[in-house]
Design goal:
Blueprint lengths: L1 E5 L18 E7 L21 E5 L35 E10 L2 E10 L5 E5 L7 E3 L6 E3 L34 E2 L2 E10 L2 E10 L18 E2 L16 E2 L35 E2 L11 E2 L2 E2 L31 E7 L2 E7 L24 E2 L3 E2 L4
Antiparallel strand pairs: 1-2, 2-3, 4-5, 5-6, 7-8, 9-13, 10-11, 12-13, 14-18, 15-20, 16-19, 17-18
């Protein structure tokens, strides 16, 4: 399960990144793997539904915008409505995830309260809301109440089919944006009644060489500044590419996530200010006693010779022109001990990229540092 947050400025969500130009939004995602085995290379998999996703925006009324299940999802599923919780940049958000009582049993609930606006929203991953489990043999769906896999967050309790030994975690999924001066190679995206023109290739200072098909077939989807996507949204605020249609991400590492284009201050300057996250706790206010720094960037280095079993040729920063990879910092800000992410030097950086450790047989393909006591500032 991933509770994902999406930044403003690059709508519509159906074939882009944002809910609108001004607000953050979020969604409850439940990804499954329809394969046998475990670890970073499970097989065999059903090619017709390898990783189906249940998806629903966090809503002020708790009602999905459309069918969440991978079997029935449609344009409405990926289109925010007047009940979608929208948050302003800089708002203070309290996030809770727990096993909720529902008619007939229990199901996972994600709830967000915006202390800055007073609004709140939630989503329950229940059969009543349209969530479904997928049959790995024929891809059919069965209404399902999703619940937590484990009763505790021990280091041994990790996702069995994930890339790395993680379960409860805070993560920035990077490598999905490249700014451009122009885009070219028009193509068409269609979902239900929605048809949109996108572009496959980016031209600009970050694209200094031709794409390598083994890494990135193209940069799609790309959109120009001012694009209204057929009048469905306000004009996009930037020209750029999400690099998610025909490639799994920015596998040649030439986009801004792999440059020092990250927050370096708690106040906005050339870059946005950093996000600030308090220590996660249980319902009873208890912190996790241990933490571990990890990144699955090694999963994106397979085409450049990274061996996830041994760690050979797996490097951080990854092999790109920007020679940078963001890292976690713990610092005291406004009298509070918080976690930051990016290029922050105002606290304990845990060695920068060294915090992520190395790739080896025991890390299930990922860079993983040692399990360590959960620190305070």
């Amino acid at each position: 399960m991933e509770l994902q947050f999406y930044p403003p400025g690059f709508a519509p969500f159906a074939d882009n990144t944002s809910c609108d130009d001004a607000h953050w939004c979020s969604a409850l995602n439940i990804d499954s793997l329809e394969c046998s085995g475990s670890g970073y290379a499970p097989s065999p998999c059903n090619p017709n539904c390898t990783e189906p996703v249940n998806f629903a925006f966090i809503q002020t009324n708790g009602v999905p915008t459309g069918p969440p299940s991978p079997q029935l999802s449609n344009l409405a599923t990926l289109t925010p409505n007047r009940h979608t919780l929208l948050m302003n940049p800089g708002d203070v958000i309290v996030v809770s995830m727990f096993d909720a009582w529902i008619p007939g049993g229990r199901a996972l609930e994600a709830r967000e309260t915006d202390l800055s606006t007073g609004q709140s929203g939630y989503m329950i991953a229940s059969a009543a809301n349209g969530f479904m489990n997928t049959n790995p043999k024929n891809c059919s769906g069965t209404p399902f109440n999703f619940q937590q896999e484990y009763s505790s967050a021990r280091a041994q309790n990790f996702l069995p089919w994930g890339f790395g030994p993680y379960m409860i975690n805070s993560e920035f999924e990077i490598g999905h944006f490249e700014p451009c001066t122009s885009v070219h190679g028009a193509a068409t995206f269609t979902m239900g009644s929605f048809t949109d023109t996108y572009y496959k290739n980016c031209s600009g200072p970050y694209e200094t060489t031709a794409e390598k098909p083994a890494l990135e077939p193209d940069d799609s989807p790309c959109y120009p500044f001012g694009d209204t996507h057929g009048g469905t949204v306000a004009p996009n605020l930037v020209t750029g590419c999400d690099v998610s249609f025909n490639a799994t991400g920015d596998l040649d590492y030439d986009g801004t996530p792999y440059y020092r284009d990250w927050p370096d201050s708690v106040t906005p300057d050339r870059y946005p200010s950093t996000f600030l996250q308090l220590q996660p706790t249980t319902d009873y206010g208890q912190r996790c006693p241990q933490i571990q720094f990890e990144t699955d960037n090694s999963a994106t280095q397979l085409a450049t010779g990274c061996n996830p079993a041994t760690g050979a040729n797996c490097v951080l920063p990854p092999p790109g022109p920007g020679n940078f990879y963001p890292y976690w910092t713990q610092a005291t800000v406004g009298g509070l001990c918080v976690w930051e992410f990016g290029n922050m030097a105002n606290g304990n950086t845990f060695g920068g990229d060294a915090q992520y450790g190395s790739v080896g047989p025991e890390t299930i393909g990922a860079f993983a540092g040692p399990v360590r006591p959960n620190p305070n500032c």
